[in-house]
Specification:
Layout (H helix, E strand, L loop, with lengths): L4 H12 L5 E6 L4 H14 L3 E5 L25 E5 L2 H9 L4 E5 L6 E2 L9 E5 L8 H4 L4 E4 L11 H18 L9 H21 L5
Helix pairs in contact: 1-6, 2-5
Amino acid sequence: MPITEKRLARFKEVVSNRQMDLTVVLENIHDPHNIAAVIRTCDAVGVTEIYGIVTDDQIDIKNYRIGKRASSGARKWIDFRIFTNLEIAIAAIRSKYTVILGTHLSESAASLYDLELSDSVALMFGNEHDGLSEEALKHLDGNFIIPQFGMVQSLNISVACAVSLYEACRQRISKGKYSSSSFEQEKKELLNNYLSKHEEGYLRGRVEE
């Protein structure tokens, strides 16, 4: 079925605001609900892809192949790249993003609000119990913490990701990076990808207007 003008305009608006140089990396996240929440936030701030690293044999890889329903439909529009080898994953991330920053409490950790997040960056988050692995920490360009002032100094992984992404969003809005003309070719390809998914959805009878 041909796409409606309203639907096409929506696709073009979304694609124009996509942040092609911002991504999230999830290492050994156990809870599929956390993964789904991260996917929704990524879609909301304009992230186009997420990297999942699964090296813990206690994790069911199916958790990373989260379904459309669990992530409120956002999964359809976010490319989720899943790796079972840390080194290969880091190489793939480095090929597209300049800096990798991770949430990790250390003496050298900077405040989230002191980071430069309007440039090419990957934000890495560790699992719910142990945080980032020692192996992952070796690949970071810097650590950051989210300032907290309560009795309990911890945040759920999906909440921490949301707070961090919206700080990146705030900075990028101030720099005019939304609706910019950057990454023209990449955005053209992304629009074609969305149009293909739209057509596939109609063939399967599962497109929401």
